[in-house]
Design brief:
By secondary structure, this protein is α+β, with helices and mostly antiparallel strands. The chain contains 17 helices and 35 strands. The structure holds sulfopyruvate and manganese (II) ion.
């Protein structure tokens, strides 16, 4: 089968033919005919092709080189600085059910709209067709994925963030089973998408595909990231595995040989990357993980990605020494939406003075410039980011690409919660732990467009990406645990507990909670049983603070951080129970856990 388009050179035709996959051919042909690019390039896994995309992003001016070798800057439009929940819709046919708070659209009319937006949208541009593998290649975790885009920045980001998958496509057992993504940045003005009012991200579960137009921000445009996450959540809930918004890390206490693997779910911009990068530990992933039952009946996890698209705000030598070092040394790295002055990047909270002018997400900028609503424009956007490969880091875990994944002993759920949950709590059992995740609340951040600091229910930190009913998703978690021979222990953490306006913890304290959880898994610490779970004993934390951070930890610190805030905890249970009552078919186990927790809380003196 050949593509009947003059746009495809013989070489590109031959590359596509070599996949021996009629579905791939048909898709590529369809979008060449619809989007009408000037040129089409099909890319393989070779260093030559990877280099081609890197150079094209510079030639297109989607990226500009900076002073440090390998570093580039990319800007997204002023109104395109985060995931756009309003413009993102899950397409549903007729009666299909899904949780009410998930944005949906009628499939037929949305497809009609998106095809009309894509029509002729690539005129004057080059269409890139690339192939990737979500999860390690050659593994039970692998999901093949194809990206069609007119943005070399998107393809460049994907080359850094995902494993190359042309080879994987060549040996597909079922040639029809892959995800695909069609993206167009649309008309550009000064290098950024111009028609942000026509931005659309449409998730078509029926065909395992996502369309994204008139946007460049990676969370909206990079198909393999949050767009694939939605498709994979559907897939995982139809089988018996978990697809989660989770980091994967190897914890290694000082002076001990063992490595204990954790996954951790945190909403966007709530400490997920910095947890994955805690000094002395090793990183496998910082954003998305697949969890499956291994042959031995244990839980295994793999990172879907091989890179980091991390928030840069507040990355400084004191709080995030490993990331800071990595951002300031030569390597292939894309900065986005930071301030550029004299070819150097600057960002908020970097621990040094920032220049008063330069180029930022608003264009040419100087201190005091305001937006259309008279609000001062900051030096850099709060959701400014960096993109790099994990292999660039010295603390990367050697099992990053292990086809079997790593065995998970602990699962962490952490939200941005100023007044309710203590810094670390261990669940009583799996079902109680699932409630901890399902009841997660977090204050909104700049990672999504809209108001920040608003407390929102965000089950398993995965709610933005849910495409199945919440009941199905929770049931899947309960069933997953039931089938495991050895269940990971579930914990909850909160890095954001406050007294008045002040945080009660330092940024590096997360290492202490991790070391305590690690020790609990190995039976090394006793704990105090409270109505909400087990909490650490003061003496253990005191020693951990001293041994790990050379920091004195007082009884007063402990009391403020760990006292059980009965009133707040009861109010939270009310909020969650009310949501669960509105959501259809929430498993009974969740109501039972809520009832037990309420009873325990009511029987202690406050
Ligand atoms: C997040 O917002 O959760 C991110 C970045 O990890 S994005 O690609 O926008 O999803
Ligand atoms: Mn994320």
């Amino acid at each position: 089968m050949k593509i009947s388009s003059k746009l495809l050179s013989n070489k590109n035709q031959a590359i596509l033919q070599s996949l021996n996959n009629p579905k791939v051919i048909k898709i590529v042909e369809t979008y060449i005919n619809l989007c009408k690019p000037d040129k089409v390039t099909v890319l393989t896994d070779t260093p030559r092709d990877i280099n081609y995309v890197r150079k094209l992003a510079l030639k297109n001016k989607e990226e500009t080189p900076l002073k440090t070798p390998g570093h580039t800057i990319h800007f997204d439009g002023f109104f395109d600085q985060g995931r756009d929940k309003e413009k993102t819709k899950v397409l549903l046919c007729g009666e299909s059910k899904i949780s009410k708070s998930i944005n949906t659209g009628d499939r037929e009319s949305c497809l009609e709209e998106i095809f009309s937006l894509l029509s002729g949208n690539m005129k004057g541009k080059e269409m890139l067709v690339s192939f990737y593998c979500l999860g390690p290649t050659n593994s039970p975790f692998s999901i093949p994925a194809m990206q069609i885009t007119d943005s070399a920045y998107v393809a460049h980001s994907e080359n850094m963030l995902y494993r190359q998958g042309f080879g994987e496509f060549k040996k597909l057992k079922d040639p029809d089973k892959f995800f695909y993504f069609v993206h167009s940045a649309g008309e550009l003005e000064n290098g950024v998408s111009k028609n942000s009012d026509k931005k659309r991200i449409y998730i078509d579960l029926e065909e395992n595909r996502v369309f994204s137009v008139n946007t460049q921000y990676a969370g909206n445009s990079v198909g393999l990231k949050k767009l694939a996450l939605r498709l994979a959540i559907k897939k995982s809930n139809e089988s018996d595995w978990l697809c989660e918004h989770m980091l994967v890390l190897g914890a290694k206490p000082q002076g001990k040989k063992r490595v204990t693997y954790f996954t951790g779910a945190f909403p966007s911009a709530c400490g997920k990357t910095s947890t994955a990068m805690i000094p002395g530990q090793s990183i496998i992933g910082d954003d998305i993980a697949y969890l499956k039952r291994g042959k031995d009946g244990r839980c295994y996890a793999a990172n879907v990605e091989q890179g980091i698209f991390g928030i840069i705000e507040n990355v400084n030598p004191k709080d995030d020494p490993l990331i800071y070092k990595s951002l300031t040394t030569p390597k292939e790295l894309i900065f986005s939406n930071v301030l550029i002055n004299n070819k150097k990047p600057y960002w908020l909270g970097m621990g040094r003075a920032l220049p008063d002018s330069g180029v930022n997400f608003a264009g040419h900028w100087k201190l005091g410039d305001c937006d259309g609503k008279d609000n001062p424009i900051p030096h850099a956007h709060k959701n400014a980011r960096y993109t790099m490969r994990l292999s660039e880091l010295t603390n990367v875990n050697p099992h990053l690409h292990d086809p079997s994944g790593v065995p998970i002993s602990g699962i962490i759920y952490g939200g941005r919660d100023s007044d309710t949950t203590p810094p670390v709590v261990e669940s009583f059992d799996w079902s109680h732990g699932v409630l901890m995740g399902a009841a997660l609340e977090s204050e909104t951040t700049a990672a999504t467009i809209g108001e920040t600091g608003v407390r929102k229910h965000n089950p398993m930190a995965n709610f933005d990406f849910l495409v199945v009913p919440l009941s199905t998703y929770i049931n899947n978690h309960l069933a997953f645990g039931r089938k495991l021979k050895k269940k990971p222990i579930i914990f909850t953490t909160n890095y954001f507990i406050k007294e008045g306006d002040n945080y009660l913890n330092g940024k590096l304290d997360k290492k202490i909670w991790l070391m305590w959880m690690e020790g609990r898994i190995h039976g090394e610490y006793r704990a105090i049983k409270t109505p909400i779970g087990y909490i650490p004993k003061y003496e253990d934390l005191k020693k951990l603070f001293w041994d790990n951070l050379k920091q004195a930890y007082t009884k007063e610190d402990y009391r403020k951080q760990f006292h059980v805030r009965t009133g707040h905890l009861l109010a939270k249970l009310e909020r969650i129970e009310a949501i669960f009552k509105i959501e259809p078919d929430i498993p009974k186990a969740m109501f039972v856990e809520i009832k037990k927790q309420r009873k325990r809380l009511k029987t202690i003196p406050s």
